[in-house]
Write a structure and sequence with these properties.
This protein is mainly β. The chain is built from five helices and 35 strands. It has a five-stranded mixed β-sheet. Strands 4-5-6-8-12 form a five-stranded mixed β-sheet. 61% of the residues are buried. Bound molecules: calcium ion (4 copies).
């Protein structure tokens, strides 16, 4: 079933519990009580069609729950197919917490056909964190299959690279084929807060962008982004290497969050990847108006430092909206130019602080402001709803079809969280409501912490989505939102 173009996706009413079975009951006030039994009955009765994909999806979301206290599992996600079977899996980084430390790991899982435990289902678990580590590590994919993982804690300051064939079973730093060092601040911080891969210097090989966020240097937080060239050459060197890494920018005074989001993509349309760094400025003691996205036009080669970058500014978006908190790139309007989506998870909508939203700019994108956005998606008017926490784009049909815009709002419905899918072609202004929901979390589950495009794994021609949730005082989970399953 194709999603109707130009109309809200009529997939509302899907409810699942982070720690329970999926159910397709309406999200009514009493639905939580009946979710488990309804799910079992519906799943048993449903005989899914063979669509020629990797999975025959049962009706409704398929949920992999973590049994460890990994609240932020899936805060960072990448999609890869390390075993080469043609069916992509998700690499989801997780973090432990002070309540139950020692479980920070990156899981390789899915695509599943039934809800299960994440640890039972994962085909690989990469553990790099020290036992006291609080933070997720970033994850990425290089050269189509090799896995990059960036820990914080004792192992911070290096990107560990695992050959695709090695990404199976229990994995530690000792299994890495290489460790690429980057210089950390003496004060540490959230090393590897985000990571992106692409060809920043235009030499035909992939490079790595990695950020080091929340470094406290009196009187404010300092954040840094490193660009590491020639990652594959470095990967060929056994053991630790220190690359030609460069500091893109450091902001010692403004308490910025430079590097909260990163991307490498050709936004100005010259065929060369551009280096994109989001700075939602959320560390300011006062709401900063400096929230923005920087774009260095490729090629960003070796030293000397690049010229002043182009800026996607917040325009009249009020300070404190966290414009630049999240980023996604893709050709949403199918005109051959990549487009940019910028999340502002704290945007005020309908008088409600923190409702959130997403701004979409059609490429070529150079110097623009949010006031010139080609599409504005406003979150549901709910205080701290957080729409724009996460963004991805997803095809609703064979290329070169326009792309749907998918975004998570982990605070909506009083922290149940939800994932929204806005169908292509994007209207200039979209006010999200329940008709755009493709999944909604249960009580305090904070679904929508992360979203990623899995590709079309159920074979119906429509890209499928994986989303993560970070429940309050509970365990995290990954939700697989197959288009063929949600359309019923
Ligand atoms: Ca390169
Ligand atoms: Ca370019
Ligand atoms: Ca475009
Ligand atoms: Ca699909």
């Amino acid at each position: 079933m194709r999603l109707a173009e130009g109309a809200p996706v009529a997939l509302a009413g899907i409810l699942a519990a982070c720690n329970g079975a999926a159910a397709d009951s309406r999200p009514a006030a009493d639905s939580a009580d009946t979710a488990d039994t309804a799910s079992e009955a519906d799943t048993a009765a449903y005989d899914p069609p063979d669509l020629g994909g990797c999975v025959d999806a049962p009706a409704g979301p398929v949920v992999l729950d973590s049994a460890a206290y990994a609240r932020y599992v899936g805060a960072e996600m990448a999609v890869s197919d390390p075993d080469g079977d043609g069916c992509p899996a998700v690499l989801a980084s997780g973090a432990s917490s002070s309540v139950d430390p020692g479980h920070a790991a990156t899981y390789l899982a899915g695509p599943p056909v039934a809800s299960a435990g994440l640890e039972d289902t994962a085909t690989a678990v990469i553990s790099l964190a020290d036992p006291d580590d609080d933070f997720a590590h970033s994850v990425g994919v290089l050269d189509g299959g090799r896995v990059l993982a960036v820990p914080s804690g004792d192992l911070a300051g290096a990107i560990y690279l695992f050959d695709a064939a090695a990404v199976a079973g229990a994995i530690t730093a000792a299994s890495a084929s290489a460790a690429i060092n980057f210089e950390l601040s003496e004060r540490g911080g959230q090393s590897g807060y985000d990571l992106a891969t692409g060809d920043a210097d235009g030499d035909g090989t992939e490079d790595i962008l990695v950020s080091d966020l929340e470094v406290w240097e009196e009187p404010s937080y300092t954040t840094r982004v490193w660009l590491i060239h020639d990652a594959l050459d470095l990967a060929a060197v056994a053991g630790k290497v220190t690359p030609d890494a460069r500091l893109l920018e450091r902001v010692p005074d403004d308490a910025e969050a430079f590097g909260r989001s990163l991307a490498l993509a050709d936004l100005d349309g010259d065929g060369l990847d551009d280096t994109i760094v989001g700075d939602p400025a959320f560390h300011s003691g006062t709401w900063s108006t400096l929230q923005r996205v920087f774009i260095w036009a490729g090629p960003v080669a070796a030293l000397p430092a690049p010229e002043a970058p182009a800026v996607v500014g917040a325009g009249s978006v009020p300070g404190g909206s966290y414009f630049g908190y999240s980023l996604a790139t893709g050709d949403v309007d199918a005109d051959g130019y990549l487009d940019l989506a910028v999340g502002a998870r704290n945007l005020e909508v309908g008088g409600e602080l923190g409702s959130g939203g997403v701004f979409v700019f059609h490429g070529p994108v150079v110097d623009v402001t949010a006031d010139e956005a080609d599409a504005v998606i406003e979150g549901v008017a709910e205080r701290w709803g957080g729409v724009g926490e996460s963004i991805t784009m997803a095809a609703a049909g064979p290329a070169p079809a326009p792309l749907d815009l998918v975004t998570g709002g982990d605070g909506v419905h009083e922290n149940a969280g939800a994932v929204y899918r806005v169908p292509a072609p994007l209207a200039p202004r979209v006010n999200l409501d329940e008709s755009y929901e493709i999944a909604r979390g249960g009580e305090l589950e904070a679904l929508g912490l992360g979203v990623a495009n899995l590709g079309d794994v159920d074979g119906d021609g429509i890209d499928d989505i994986v989303a993560s949730c970070a429940p309050v005082d509970d365990y995290g989970a990954l939700w697989f939102l197959y288009s063929s399953a949600l359309a019923r």
